Amino acid sequence: MITALTAVAILSGLSLVFVYRYAMPKIEVNVKNETKSAIENIFPDGADIKPVKGDENMFSVKGKSGKMLGYAIIAEGNGYQGTIKMVAGVDETFKVMSGMEVLESQETPGLGAEIAGKPFAGQFSGLAITHEIEYVKNQKPAQPYQIEAITGATISSRAVVNILNESIDKARRAAGGGK
Amino acid sequence: MIKEFTKGLWKENPIFVQVLGMCPTLAVTTKALFGFSMGMATTFVVVSSSVVISLIRRFVPREVRIPMFTVIIATFVTAADYFLKANLYQISKALGPYVPLIVVNCIILGRAEAFASKNNIARSFLDALGMGVGFTCALIILGSVRELLGSGTVFGYAVMWGGFTKWVIMVLPAGAFLTLGLLVGLFNVINSRMVKKAGCK
Q1: pLDDT tens-digit map of B143-193
Q2: Mean pLDDT over all residues of chain A?
Q3: Chain A window 96-135: which residues touch B at a Cβ cutoff of 8 Å?
């Protein structure tokens, strides 16, 4: 009885080692590629993406000629369900956002999950961040630092705004006040 | 022999008749593609574990058969999870925790206990394949209905007219229950008509 159970467990463990060794490198590449392609979507001219020293959640993005385009910040926090992970692009001076891409979210499909969709996420390109980002409901934003929340998914929209505000603020301080 | 395969499609359909595996059924069918992927992953697990269990059925002591089956099933589930993450990353992300949760899908342990542990490999293979395909078809139907009414698309293709108002409830949990209930009802109506017809002959 014990022998049979042990044998099955050992065989199962051994076979999983092979699966793991085959799959793990591929999975790591997938995760890396995803972040990279998100950054490239935000900065279409970005050619040189390098992690900022001392902060693994921040990347400096330079164009082909070596011109500084801005920073890409990995922003993470609690959503309506589970964690929302995004890439936020900001310009070098921390005045305007270049864009936002959602990497991971467990928001409600069809509602909160729309934070990844163009109509919502697109609002962040060109958004002013000299003021804290705010959201408005069921109306067009009146200020350059406002976005319109998704109807029926205010909590998810608010979560995105809060996470971004916090992460951008942190990154700004890390980068030396955004001078 | 062929009956072992076809019974999973209709007469003993895992979802509409046995009402097993409700957790992934209700959770991932917001879109037809997710239903399809979930169905394929489950089919892989149920077929491989049924074959292995049928292969070793003579060496399994009765007292520990359930833990042994569970270890075997968990192995295949983990393999499926890694495979999806490595090769179909976007789909694996969409299915989220429901791929690892195939482990506790009653269809699989049910087939292992009720069929594979008592039948030869060929029959167990056909039985598991039938159950897997039946499960997949049911998930695709459920996913298509919910995606059509909730998002206006099927498999990502827009099929509804331009001004179509999306029924948001269909992509929410309530929509899963409504659709499943109506489909089970429809299934039973068709079934009882068929039985009646067969009886008149």
Answers
A1: 999 999 988 889 988 888 878 888 888 888 899 999 999 999 999 999 899
A2: 89
A3: 104, 106, 108-111
Cβ distance A8 to B93 less than 8 Å, yes or no, reads: no
Q: How confident is the model at residue A177 (pLDDT cuts 50, 70, 90)?
A: low
| pLDDT tens string B120-146 | 999 999 999 999 999 999 999 999 999
Beta strands (DSSP E) in A8-152 are 48-51, 58-62, 68-78, 83-91, 97-104, 134-136, 146-148
Backbone angles phi, psi at A75, to 5 degrees: -110, 130
Please state the pTM of the whole predicted model. Answer: 0.80
Q: Strand locations in chain B, DSSP E?
A: 153-154, 157-158
Q: How confident is the model at residue A87 (pLDDT cuts 50, 70, 90)?
A: very high
Nearest Cβ partner of B82 from A20, A34, A109? A20
Considering its fold, how many domains does chain B have in total? 1
* Smallest Cα distance from B166 to chain A, Å: 9
Nearest one of A83, A77, A74, A75 to A51, comparing CA atoms: A74
Interface test with A, best of B75, B76, B95, B165 (most A CBs within 10 A): B75
What is the C-alpha to C-alpha distance for residues B133 and B38, in angstroms, rounded to an integer?
Answer: 11
User: Is residue A10 less than 8 Å (CB to CB) from chain B?
Assistant: no
**For residue B31, which residues of chain A lie inside 8 Å, CB to CB?**
109
Do A12 and B74 make contact, defined as CB atoms within 8 angstroms?
yes
Q: Would you tell me how many other CB atoms lie within 10 Å of the CB of residue A3?
A: 9
User: Are the C-beta atoms of residues B151 and B32 closer than 8 Å to each other?
Assistant: no
Q: Are residues B61 and A9, on separate chains, in Cβ contact within 8 Å?
A: no
Cβ-defined contact of B64 to A4 (cutoff 8 Å): yes
DSSP code of B116?
I
Q: Which among A147, A154, A137 is positioned nearest to A88, based on CA atoms?
A: A147
Nearest CA in chain B to A6: B68
Domain ranges, residue B191: 2-200
Order of strands, sheet of A68-78, starting from the edge strand that comes earlier in the sequence: A48-51, A58-62, A68-78, A83-91, A97-104
Amino acid at position A168, single letter: I
The reply to whether B29 touches chain A by the CB within 8 Å rule is no
